[in-house]
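Why should sequence recovery work at all? Because a backbone constrains its sequence more than one might expect. Tight turns favour small or flexible residues, buried strands favour hydrophobic ones, and helices have their own preferences. The token representation captures these environments compactly. In the example below, the structure is given first.
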């Protein structure tokens, strides 16, 4: 990792990229400890690619369908990230499972946002899962990426109440607001050296916030 200046960050997306936009906007602040240097999508039709380009960020598709298997796709991804001298990787609605080899290469330097209060409701359809389980609190989690899906050490979480008449869409609408708030705050912590991975656990610096956001 380059010392001194801002950490160089790549964002991996597969879709509309609203978390990506939140990260790009936060990083415009001169005091933000990271700069977004690259956006990559595994889907050429991802709307987020257009939004990144509009924001002046180099944005490219690496179409996973052009590669025979996960390992060769991940190698292409890795080569792009290293060519751009990336320090940190943010997954933001990136819908591909990454190989353990790729994940190991970015251990402690790759984070993900997931739309549930992990370890509850891994995988997809998290808002439906939350409603089916009858929980009163739902939310989102930013965590370091490990090979097991949605299982890495937790950096921070934001919680919202589940209301009597919520459906998956209404929950998604309120959780995404918290995602866009939480993710830039967590990237600032990691890029600023206030949160890091040590021995498989997240360590927060003494002056760092405690990682919990509530929206009640
Ligand atoms: C978010 O809910 C994110 O947590 C999940 O996929 C969604 C992506 O939304 N992994 P966007 O592309 O950031 O708008």
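From this structural description, the recovered sequence reads:
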């Amino acid at each position: 990792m380059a010392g001194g200046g801002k950490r160089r960050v790549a964002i991996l997306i597969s879709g509309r990229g609203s978390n990506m936009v939140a990260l790009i906007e936060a990083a415009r602040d001169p005091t933000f400890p990271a700069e977004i240097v690259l956006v990559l999508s595994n889907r050429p039709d991802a709307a987020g690619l257009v939004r990144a380009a509009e924001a002046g960020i180099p944005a490219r598709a690496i179409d996973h369908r052009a590669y025979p298997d996960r390992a060769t796709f991940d190698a292409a991804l890795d080569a792009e990230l290293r060519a751009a001298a990336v320090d940190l990787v943010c997954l933001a609605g990136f819908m591909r499972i990454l190989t353990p080899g790729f994940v190991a290469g970015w251990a402690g330097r790759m984070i993900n946002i997931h739309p549930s209060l992990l370890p509850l409701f891994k995988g997809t359809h998290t808002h439906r899962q939350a409603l089916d389980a009858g929980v009163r609190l739902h939310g989102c989690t930013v965590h370091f990426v490990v090979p097991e899906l949605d299982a890495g050490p937790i950096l921070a979480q934001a919680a919202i109440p589940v209301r009597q008449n919520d459906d998956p869409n209404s929950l998604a609408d309120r959780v995404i607001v918290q995602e866009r708030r939480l993710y830039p705050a967590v990237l600032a912590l990691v890029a600023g050296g206030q949160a890091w991975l040590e021995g498989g656990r997240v360590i927060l610096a003494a002056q760092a916030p405690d990682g919990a956001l509530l929206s009640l």
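A few observations help interpret the result. The helical segments are 18-27, 47-54, 70-83, 100-105, 126-133, 168-191.
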